[in-house]
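Q: I have four molecules that I believe assemble together. Could you output structure tokens for the complex as a whole instead of separate predictions?
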Amino acid sequence: MARAGRRPGDNDTRGEVLAAARATFAERGYHGATIRAIAATADVDPALVHHYFGTKEDLFAAAVRLPMPPAAFAERIIGPGVDGAGERLAAAFFEVWEDPTTRDGLLTMLRGAFATDRGAAVLRDFFGTVMVRRLAGELDGEGAELRMTLAASHLIGIAVLRYVVRFPDLEAASVDDLVALVGPRLQAYLG
Amino acid sequence: MARAGRRPGDNDTRGEVLAAARATFAERGYHGATIRAIAATADVDPALVHHYFGTKEDLFAAAVRLPMPPAAFAERIIGPGVDGAGERLAAAFFEVWEDPTTRDGLLTMLRGAFATDRGAAVLRDFFGTVMVRRLAGELDGEGAELRMTLAASHLIGIAVLRYVVRFPDLEAASVDDLVALVGPRLQAYLG
DNA sequence: CGTTGAATTCATCCGTGGTTGAATTCTACG
DNA sequence: CGTAGAATTCAACCACGGATGAATTCAACG
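A: Yes, here they are, computed for all four components at once.
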């Protein structure tokens, strides 16, 4: 079925391919996700994937999506001041990770950091530029950058255990409980 | 060079292959590490790898090494009581991760958790049985298991950023500084 | 020394998966 | 309508990498 040639009607196949790529990268990681599998998910020929996105690495780059403009993200955390920034950070973190729209893109980025050097670089950049440089700039005291990095590392670890490894205790916990527990620990690093 | 047949002398080739496997898995992850690359590192024919360790998955299982008997590990942390357990946990964590002997095995386990379902299961088991069940059992208060899991997640995150992604701020920090900063946050979860 | 078995390499097979260029079907626009 | 170009599939190539079975060299032991 599905013979050669353009399909009738008005359709956004490119978008479907991209969504399939996100879902597949998120679920199986860079190497585990094959172009063929992505194409199958999008119900499309593998060649079409290349037609739209070029090489697999290009497709990966297109699939990595940040939840919101990084600057806005940082602003939202630190804008109201250092007080309560820990809880705001935790809340914002879970907000984007729990949203099915953005989760796949984030998972793709996180898993990518383990799969390819370029993926690791993406994560380094994201954290370096946005989180640490911008947020740590507002903090007082010694070693603000290191403290900010440690706060970020905690969130990374939670993402790993809750969304990748699916550790039962963490997967079962409610977001409210998590924010209540994690927020103060983050605040301890920031204050 | 290296013609067919047994090599003269008394040598532990099997051990060298295993070490090469650990190093390669640690550096490139499960999929990135090829049997051929491992064999080349050990200066050996690929077939020999299979001869000793069977399938690639078997080799991976052999390469994942825990730093010490998990029970002993847990005992060391919680044995002296809840007081100071946070610092002891942090110290023990960095001890095994900074030791080049054990680091490759741990990296293999951590990266493996991202690459294959089985790898994720290994990590789940390790944390589930040892860390959480054993350690959380000694804690007081509500949600001891979740709190313990969160403490563990922080350590995982640090491992990711320091040893996998190689985030500069974290890589540059001294172990003493890290223990001093992280210990109290872990203690906050435990107490 | 001769024989057995372990250690090691050789040659090769085969599946998987990224990639490509040509062919086919549709839409848009004159 | 006719033609240009975009969307889509077809068919195939080719490299990489895991796996295997036979052949070769050495050690151990009688």
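A: One point stands out. Residues 70-190 of chain B form a domain with the Tetracycline Repressor; domain 2 fold (CATH 1.10.357.10).
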